[in-house]
Amino acid sequence: MSTAYIVAAARTAGGRKAGRLSGWHPADLAGKVLDALVDRAQADPALIEDVIMGCVSQVGEQSSNVARNAVLSSKLPESVPATSVDRQCGSSQQAVHFAAQAVMSGVHDIVIAAGVESMSRVPMGLSMVLPAKNGFGGPNGEAIKQRYPGIEFSQFLGAEMMAKKYDISKDQLDEYALGSHQRAIAATRAGAFEQEVVPIEITLPDGNKELHTVDEGIRFDATLEGIRGVKLIQEGGRVTAATASQICDGASGVLIVNEKGLKTLGVQPLARIHHMSLLGHDPVIMLEAPLPATERALKKAGMKIDDIDLFEVNEAFAPVPIAWLKATGADPARLNVNGGAISLGHPLGASGTKLMTTLVYALKQRNKRYGLQTMCEGGGMANVTIIERL
């Protein structure tokens, strides 16, 4: 079986809700990332055999196969097909897996895995709200209700359950959130994101044009006192908006090829995909899946936690990475070294390839070898991807 290589990776800087990227249609925003990937690989756009794009809220401006609309919004020719994937927050990480599987099998040689989410223009949960207006119910049918009687599936409740299960105090959550901002600030000031970010032209309120290149969610004035003062999401709980991921607009992607694709493009790989796996877990606590998924992935890969140089664990809520550290015994200094979704934002379907892009460049900048990425996903699932920098 062939090897899957990453030869280009790119992402937009995140935009806050109703912020700097809210004027961009999601298909156009994703199209800019597709263009950047082709440009970075100096590839003939017609050589792309498929685009697999993660997106969670596939409704409104992200409906009707947003991946195909992104292709038609880019420099890629009409001959390039595309499909949209929903594995909740892991949608574009799953797109990476699908793309890698395609080139490893030899079905394709050159595939783009990408993701997009405009949470300003397509609000989270919109796909569940619309049926209710027409008298229909939500995503859970009678069979699920019978299997989990009286259970409310909620990521907010899952976050609180994790904090209690792993004995994580509110103070620990607040301190972790501050650290996320501090790492993101340091990375931004050091220019760590410059190679990965695709500049996006925006129009300012005064009509002037400007390039958006800095993640808008980073709070450069963040203090522990300020974070501690944010209202609890649930009365008697421990999680606040400050210790949860930020609503975010963004797009991201990676170009994945096999050996034949490398020769066709005449490029050097940035990394190879060493391992891919995923796991279903308890849908009630929901966010815990990355913990057993990581353990299982390392076992399948024949590796130990200390073999991994850098980790990207999505900061959907602060209890997730903290509990993950407790369960795995990983070195905290190797985790989310450039900040995470608490500071940089979590553009749902775009987060998988966003984290992968950051991981690829972080390994390069630090001259490290192995990186592991995982994230919790709605319904109690987790993808795990291990890459080797080349």
TrEMBL record:
Coiled-coil stretches: none
InterPro entries per UniProt: Thiolase, Thiolase-like, Thiolase_C, Thiolase_CS, Thiolase_N
Superkingdom per UniProt: Bacteria
The keyword Transmembrane is assigned to this record: no
Gene3D superfamilies (UniProt xref): 3.40.47.10
Family to which this protein belongs: Belongs to the thiolase-like superfamily. Thiolase family.
NCBIfam families cross-referenced by the UniProt entry: AcCoA-C-Actrans, PRK06504.1
Keywords: Acyltransferase, Transferase
Database matches in SUPFAM superfamilies: Thiolase-like (SSF53901)
Organism of this sequence: Steroidobacter gossypii
Ranges for domain Thiolase C-terminal: 268-389
Sequence ranges assigned to domain Thiolase N-terminal in this UniProt record: 5-259
Protein name per the record: Acetyl-CoA C-acetyltransferase
